[in-house]
Amino acid sequence: MTTIIFSLITVILISISVWQIVKIFEVSNLGKKKDTSQIANYKDNDLHGKLMFAFLVFIYLVTIYSFVSYTKVLLPESASEHGYTYDRLLVISFIVIFIVQTITQALLHYYTYKFRGTKGRKAAFITHNNRLELVWTVIPAIVLFVLILYGMSTWSDIMNFDEDEDALVVELYAAQWNWKARYSGDDNVLGDANVRFLNDFDGRNIVGIDSSDPNGLDDIVVTNEFHLPVDRKVIFKIRSQDVLHSAYMPHFRAQMNCVPGMITEFSFTPTKTTADMRMNPDVVDKVNRINKIRYDNSQELIAKGEEPLEPYQFDYLLLCAKICGSSHYNMQMKIVVESEKDFNKWLNQQNTFSEIIQ
Amino acid sequence: MSVAVNNNVENHDEHHHKETFITKWIFSQDHKMIAKQYFVTGVIVMGIIGVLMSLLFRIQLAWPEESFSVFEIFLGDRWAPDGVMDPNIYLALVTIHGTIMVFFVLTAGLSGTFSNLLIPLQIGARDMASGFLNMVAYWLFFISSVIMVASLFVEAGPAAAGWTIYPPLSALPQAQPGSGAGMTLWLVSMAFFIASSLLGSLNYIVTVLNLRTKGMSMFRLPLTIWAFFVTAIIGVISFPVLLSAALLLIMDRSFGTSFFLSDIFIQGEVLHYQGGSPVLFEHLFWFLGHPEVYIVLLPALGITSEIIATNSRKPIFGYRAMVASILAIAFLSTIVWGHHMFVTGMNPFLGSVFTFTTLLIAIPSAVKAFNYIATLWKGNLQLNPAMLFSIGLVSTFITGGLTGIILGDSALDINVHDTYFVVAHFHLVMGISALYGLFAGVYHWYPRLYGRMMNKSLGYVHFWITAIGAYGIFFPMHFIGMAGLPRRYYTNTAFPYFDDLADINVLITVFALVTGLAQLIFLYNFIHSMYFGKKAEKNPWKSNTLEWTAPVEHIHGNWPGKIPEVYRWAYDYSKPGKKEDYVPQSIPIAKEEKITEH
Would you say residue B510 lies in a domain? Predict the structure, then answer.
């Protein structure tokens, strides 16, 4: 209660001081010819015209500062095949944005400065200019058509994948608030599944596989982390058991929503093993930076008598990107990309569905 | 040139009936009073709640591990025990912040205030076509606001499924506490809101079409009116679809239907729903949701068109192109909703179609931006606070709009969808831009609303803090998104990978707090000027439009005696051969004067 009163008093005091400042401002102008019209005069035009020009500089500085100091937090180079095309399209789009932004903001703010109202200035009477307007309709149109065509072909390459025989089929299964992954086993066919089967076998059937479908018996379900072989195409079949989720794997430039009652799909080919990615200079930098932050935070925790934070090691991540309830912020699964040999070794250590339900 | 319809009585006698306190201040049918009512309810009251919520969750995002007594004050023991914010209330805060800012502040607050104030005054009408429906529209909005605020106090918490309320999360109380009574109230509130919006919009459309004064042809309308008119049309087309989505969701929630639900297992139980699809809801929602962006933005663009022309002392550049681009944006806005759904599992071919239509919107948008810049060129700029906010709008509209090239491109959307990149983009292009339009409108038309002037020094301080703050908040936010951080995360400490974003989050929050508090300057200026502001002249900005020919004191029927007739377009600023640098629309064409071709 006292806090409320204090906040109220603070607000009131601030209001009074603002009022006083304005009063002082007005009183200090008393001696001069008084202008209380509250309409901008030449002095205002001059000041704010110049400030507008300064604001242009501010926008440029913010842009430069952000690119210089925040580029390092961005995602490292793509770990999937289509990701290279994605990144190239992104860079091209950014170059277009950057050029347009620099020029238009310059014109906007410079004109505000240059044509700020001064004594004796008279505005030109110009109502329109069809040729000029045609120019700035056609040029954006051409640029956009190029971007649209490029974007559409990239999109179609990413989304219209073939169901190759040798592609690895993996099911991603979302629930509040964890992920599971299912491999199709030796037959490379996922067994039928439905939420109706989730309560079978005392809850051991954690993704609801239909035990009467023979294709499902050799399926392998894993939690916490899933592995992918490098350089082999993966086709994800994505399901959800309760609400909408979104399977987001930023390092692979991959995202697809998980929709209850429906199987959605995405496909990519991992090109870098986890071990390789850990050697990537950008990733090394990032991990060092993160560990320094964690070290500093740990010192504070130790001082408070709490457990220090564990050092961080890079791993590919599967996150949830669609609001899904209270633990949306902590719905994660580790992805390990490794050689085909290591992958097979790991997969063979996992239990199949038939083993689990016995 | 077509002859405008003039249904107005020439002499204004029948309005002189007696007014009581209630008919004047509460159940008023006068469009000017209703405009003020919308502003106070929609912008001031709801705006304070919406902004305050954003400050609370920004504090949480900057210092996620710490406890704050300010959380306890506003959220209470239940949602912030010992000053630690509960994850469910975090989601509720982002949900209600979005709902309030998009619908209550920037739709009802913005259109409600300025369409009501300006449509009759600028087209030369005594009032709206139906003063009674106008009053009903406001009171439905008032009820809607009361219900939305009431929903904040239900036991299980307010709606928390995001302002897009996608089912099943919003449909199942088992999925999150906010999907119980809180969501029911949210839906009921929105049903009232939509009814209010439709009544208001129909009134605006009918008024613009039928009640223009003599000589006010469609191509002599100020761009404000074009913007409000087209906005109302988009609203009438798209809001009913949201109503149907809300009704179907109510059916799913309360009557066991399966429009949006299928194959759900939650809390150990298989639910009976079969055959519905959440994707259907997404289509219905975004069929409103995307046009909604333009329902918010077009009035702001209309307002700035008027203010930039007036304060440049120069005709708006390319009037017809401006009207054409408003119409093009309106048309395209109804066929681009799918760009919110590229990764929902929608057919990839549809993704291509929506990419195409979406990027087309950039063309009329670019035309508008260039026309604004061309209007400034060789002007004689009067840099009033309203003008600064209008130029600020063009700036944020460009900055925010350009990243739309990335989000509207289905391929690029994949990796930034539902990340902070989206949050940064839409806050700049529609949130901040529309707010700037709103502020510009208030500074400019305050003399028409309250007959007094707002303090310009405070206006300047307000603008500069807000302008720096807006870039300070949303520019760095793009980078957090491109680093891969999804939106609506209660904290990002669960992922050590995002640890190095903590500094940026602190920076953003500091900017947000300063900018949020700076709005108190505006609030103070607004209220203080109401009573102590300098009395306004009839036409302080030397503007051409009709509202400045009406007396400063509000009278029922707007003009004593005859309604002024219109002889020219609204933008004869600095016309050669004229002594003054403006020629009001009501001044007849002089001998030897050429009608301006536009």
Answer: yes
Check whether residue B250 and residue B393 sit in a common domain.
no
- Residues of A with CB below 8 A from B371's CB? 133
Domain boundaries, position B175 = 35-111+119-260
Phi, psi of B108 (to 5 degrees): -70, -45
Domain end, chosen from A103, A128, A159, is at A159
**For residue B513, what are the CA distances in angstroms to A21, A231, B504, B516?**
22, 48, 14, 5
Residue B290 maps to a domain: no
Length of chain A: 358
A44 with A143, same domain: the answer is: yes
From B227, B244, B260, the end of a domain falls on: B260
Closest C-alpha among B553, B263, B46, B283 to residue A175: B263
**Using an 8 Å Cβ cutoff, are A40 and B387 in contact?**
yes
Domain extent, residue A245, equals: 168-277+310-357
Please tell me what DSSP assigns to residue B219: G
Contact B488, A323 (CB under 8 A): yes
Residues 6+ apart with CB under 8 A from A225: A333, A334, A335, A336
Closest chain B CA to residue A7: B70
At B394, which helix (H) or strand (E)?
A: helix B385-402
Indicate if the pLDDT at residue B351 is higher than 60.
Answer: yes
What is the spatial distance between Cα B196 and Cα B201, in angstroms, rounded to a whole number? Answer: 9
| Residue closest to A156 by CA, chosen among B357, B339, B340, B355 | B355
A105, part of any domain: yes
Measure A111 CA to nearest chain B CA, in Å.
6
Interchain CB contacts (distance < 8 Å): A and B: 407
Inside any domain, residue B389: yes
pTM value is 0.93
**A93 closest CB neighbour out of B87, B378, B409:** B409
Residues 538-597 of B with CB under 8 A from A: 540-541, 571, 573-576, 581, 596-597
Residue A317: strand, helix, or coil? strand
B327-343, pLDDT tens digit by residue?
A: 999 999 999 999 999 99
ipTM of the complex: 0.93
pLDDT one-digit tens code per residue, B42-82: 999 999 999 999 999 999 999 998 899 999 999 999 999 99
